[in-house]
Amino acid sequence: MVLLSPQARESRREPVISLVSEDVYSVMTEHTTLGYIHQVGHVYVALSGDVLSHAVEVGQSLSWDRAVQMVRSA
Question: Is 26 exposed, middle or buried (0-12, 13-18, 19+ CB in 10 A)?
Fold first, then answer.
């Protein structure tokens, strides 16, 4: 049997994605905003931080799933 702490369970859940504006999405858990993804043409820019105006770029990808993963692991 493997017991998971509440933090470990939270990190395993899929994040909630919400449209903020025409080309910006927020990546959230049940309790907090992890960051944002800004779509610029065919590129997804992953931003870490709970406030969009202060979020820091953590990577860029041509893959949506990879961009979400970058935000989650930042």
Answer: buried
Query: For the segment 59-74, what is each residue's pLDDT rounded down to a tens digit?
Result: 999 999 999 999 999 9
pTM: 0.82
In a domain, 47, yes or no: yes
Cβ partners under 8 Å of residue 21, min gap 6: none
Domain of 31, in residue numbers: 6-73
Q: How many domains does the chain have?
A: 1
Beta-carbon-side half-sphere exposure of residue 50 (alpha carbons within 13 Å) = 5
